[in-house]
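Record type: ASSEMBLY
Status: queued
Input:
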Amino acid sequence: MLWVDKYRPKTLDKITVHEDVAKNLKKLVTEQDCPHLLFYGPPGSGKKTLIMAVLRQMFGPGAEKVKIENKTWKIDAGTRTIDLELTTLSSTHHVELNPSDVGFQDRYIVQEIIKEMARNRPIDTKGKKGYKDMYVMAVLVLNEVDKLSREAQHSLRRTMEKYSASCRLILCCNSSSKVTEAVRSRCLNVRINAPTEEQIMGVLEFIGKKEGLQLPPGFAARIAAQSNRSLRRAILLFETCRVQQYPFINNQVIPPMDWEQYVSEIASDIMKEQSPKRLFLVRGKLYELLINCIPPEIILKRLLSELLKKLDAELKHEVCHWAAYYEHRMRLGQKAIFHIEAFVAKFMSIYKAFLIATFG
Amino acid sequence: MGGEIVLCRPKQVKDVAHQDEVVRVLTNTLETTNCPHMLFYGPPGTGKTTTALAIAHQLYGPELYKSRVLELNASDDRGINVVRTKIKDFAAVAVGSGSRQGYPCPPYKIIILDEADSMTEDAQAQCFATHNGNLLQSYKILFHLIIEPLASRCAKFRFKPLSEEIMSSRILHICKEEGLNLDSEALSTLSSISQGDLRRAITYLQGAARLFGSSISAKDLVSVSGVIPQDVVQSLFAACKSGDFDSANKEVSNVIAEGYPVSQMLSQLFEVVVEADDISDEQKARICKRLGEADKCLVDGADEYLQLMNVASNTMRALCNMPQDSYE
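Status: finished
Output:
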């Protein structure tokens, strides 16, 4: 079992990083009248952990026994029927799904399936000791609501009001900007911030102690600094280091992610020479990254931050502007490679012009 | 959710807060039971749906309500087919008149199309072909979304945003009913963060009451509402003022890592810029132009970090009077 899963806190009481949030949630849940919840925050900040803990608080250990199902739904859309396939993760008390997986047909998922589930009250689960008849209602966990289409989000808003007697929704997303105001205003918004480096260090030291490891001084701090404030990433890095070499030595290298290394190679390629030939070479490397399923916007962001490190202050503004411009275009367009490449070409031309202007 | 909101909905047209003109016209309508097609528009949370439901209830009473009123909203599929079949079928059956139990019960039916602006254009076009029923619509800000042939067949009612006093009195009323304790600072915070939207104010209040118990402070309300604390906005603005790109970059990364919604950040930054005294109008214009563009990009789904970074860098250039580049 990976350490990330092994040391995931199971109950709200055991959560250490977002202690105050957990305390408030516990109060909320035990008062028996829990509103719809919307969790938002950057990746690796602990949204999922909190949601699992909330479910456990509601339903007891039963919420952890989940099964994965791949269901096909037949939806009657007037003139034709549509088959939708969706993977759900369900226990006896809750269902978790990822409606944005079905792409542009996500509207039907919200309108039909969620409505259907919300309408069916779950069987009464009285008699479980300790948890009694606390929550005789279905809980739906929807992931990545920010990726839902506008229509789907609109459909969601009324569903939330109408079936609030028999069903609670827990929504989870990275950026709440992309969730419509109408949905946001119907939920209790819970912001989960990324843990600070000190908090990450605390967790790493805790795991180290549990595993009986000797940490050289400053080691946890170095991992935390490299993790970009993502706890998941920090723990994974820690485990990688453990596998690579133990006992830890004082200045042990913390291996960077291989794709990040690759992006910084690309960045230095671009800085060295600005020519069509070099652009062709870079394109090959970009394709390599895309083939390995690194999301294009992450590549672009990483590339920008690598380039910014090497630039003069006056160029930074312009480069930053173009990165935002091409990322927006990428979102509107279809094929990511064009836009990343356009950014690289644009950068080359700006940089070349700058070099000529300064050095002649 | 929605418990308090549903409970607090006024049951009669005359109880609808702050919409005097609308209420006057509608009370008149109710007395004569001569009711044109109606189109309600205005910002969210000003009582459009409430008014529509109240009219329907006052006309028909609880008994006939089910058979005479059809309520459709965005959670129902409202493509052209639905309008063709469901609405037409409903409207086609004629009904008799005659008052019952003190309710006027006029000889027509009412169809409430909630959130009409999210209907497809075809469906809207079909709507005005349906004449037997009486159309009551409540819909949101975007007026131009309703196609002209439909809009011109309706009597339009504009709902204005609630003023601060009205909001406060309603909120205090709810607090009294629910046994909540709200000090004056929290009350003014609540009306400012909810920006005239009563529903939002009640939601915040409800959230805060659930989380923090019956006595609620201004800070609790801010944390529930998702408004970004002022010092975070100020420190980003200060970093832009300093003219140091890297410190602005650090502030932006921090905002993203803390999980603050960038769209909210943009609107709060906008307030700071507009209210600042030491910035020239030209600088303000430069900053606001980019704020607008960034907001559009965010709606299109662009990356939050890059957009905020772009805004920050542009703000910095404007504040430090750096020359405008060709790409701006």
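Annotation: Chain A touches chain B through 64 residues (CB under 8 Å).
Annotation: The beta strands of chain A are 37-40, 67-77, 80-90, 94-97, 138-143, 167-173, 188-191.
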